Amino acid sequence: MRFELDVDEFERLADLIYQKAGIRFEQKKIYYLAKRLEKRIAALDLANTEEYLRHLKFRDHQGYELQEFLNSLTVNETYFFRDFNQLLSFAEFSLDQIVERKKSTGDQTLRIWSAGCSSGEEPYTIAIILKEMVENLQRWNVEIIASDIDLNILEKARQGVYMRRSVKDVPPDYLTRYFTQKAGIFKITDEIKEMVTFKHINLSDRKQLRPCRDFDFIFCRNVLIYFDTISRKKVVDHYYLALNNGGFIFLGSSESPSRINPAFKIKKSANHMVYYKE
Ligand SMILES: C[S@@+](CC[C@H](N)C(=O)[O-])C[C@H]1O[C@@H](n2cnc3c(N)ncnc32)[C@H](O)[C@@H]1O
User: Which CATH number fits domain 7-73: 3.10.20.310, 1.10.155.10, 3.30.420.10, 3.40.190.10?
Assistant: First the structure.
């Protein structure tokens, strides 16, 4: 028998997902949702969506099942050195500005947050860039915090093991230096792995966001495109608070932080706009 999800059930699930994760599912995504829901219903050996909704409401007190369901819904597409131009402006412009400013005040800390890090390609890319660009990096106290809502993808990120398509844009000499390679499998080296701390953080949960503060750089690329205007603004407003003065924010190249929160200032670097907190 073919699994069906009616519009009312879809709306109830979509509301739940929105409240929990800030992600807005439009009705055109009904089949996407139905496919993943069918798997969860089978895994729990339930009869239908009504039973599943009841399970979430009355039996899932710790939220484990809702988390499983969310894990199955997230879009985790990512790869190393994604959006190369934007990373160039980080590597050659904003990073230099922060490093020079901190050197002049004797502050040797660098704090970076990759929010919505998926399987780790983004924070590991940032770590490689720091290795390449910051002189005497060993003298700096570097923290790269990488977070995601999806527990399964965080586990993958911690392993740091990738297929060829994830590393297709890695410059060849970095591939040799920062990966070990065997039978088409690429493993990130321990020196890079140790620079990144992975955390489970839901960007729609105010309580979880509150301690995330004092960053010099925040990367949240290709994450907020799944949020609606209201939940996107809440997250970007937090990023403003969470950045140190002079700190930079990187959203996806089609997303403009200052359009979401006009307090962010814009500078032009080479052929890219960079956004920062004054
Ligand atoms: C398309 S990936 C982007 C990965 C990487 N930032 C990049 O640009 O390549 C989007 C990630 O955002 C995560 N995500 C979606 N909603 C989230 C939320 N409410 N809190 C935290 N992470 C979330 C997803 O689990 C997914 O791994």
Answer: 1.10.155.10
